[in-house]
Amino acid sequence: MTQNELITLISNDTGFQYKTVLTILRKLAVYMAIGVENDEECLLGIGKFAMQLRKGRMAYNFQTKEKYTLPSYYAVKYTPSRYIKKALNKKSIEIRAKELESQETIQDALEIGVKPTKTKKRKSRKKKS
Fold first, then answer.
1. Rounded to an integer, what distance in angstroms lies between the CA atom of residue 59 and that of residue 65?
2. Is residue 48 part of a domain?
3. Which domain holds residue 109?
């Protein structure tokens, strides 16, 4: 989903103008960046954003066959919320159950929370004499 599609969806659902939603999303990004810079964890209901230090390491340039060191740097780490994890797991259960083409299996899998998998039939091998 692109930024334009997201803004259009939010605008249509809430009734706000396109420019208003765009301004809100830009301000949200700015405040998230400020929070992460100040070493605060940002919780938005969609997940957690936190700053993490990546260690320096040795790298290799295959064209020049030269070894060099990459310095350590900070990166933003994203951890999805439990709601997103549950939605993704539910979706994967539905997809796997559809592969089995059994409506009862879908309901059983969703009720007990088990991911159904396909069972493969083994072909019997005959010994050649």
1. 10
2. yes
3. 81-118
Do 24 and 59 fall into the same domain? yes
Residue at token pair 């938005």: 44
Three-class SS of residue 40?
coil
Asked if 56 and 106 sit in the same domain, the reply is: no
User: How confident is the model at residue 31, as a pLDDT?
Assistant: 85
Q: What is the pLDDT of residues 70-126, one digit of tens each?
A: 999 999 888 888 887 887 777 776 666 666 655 555 556 566 555 545 555 555 565
User: What are the residues whose beta carbons fall under 8 Å from the beta carbon of 51, sequence distance 6 or more?
Assistant: 36, 37, 39, 74, 75, 76, 77
Whichever domain contains 74, its CATH number is 4.10.520.10
Q: How confident is the model at residue 63 (pLDDT cuts 50, 70, 90)?
A: very high
Q: Say how many CA atoms lie within 13 Å of 103 toward its Cβ.
A: 0
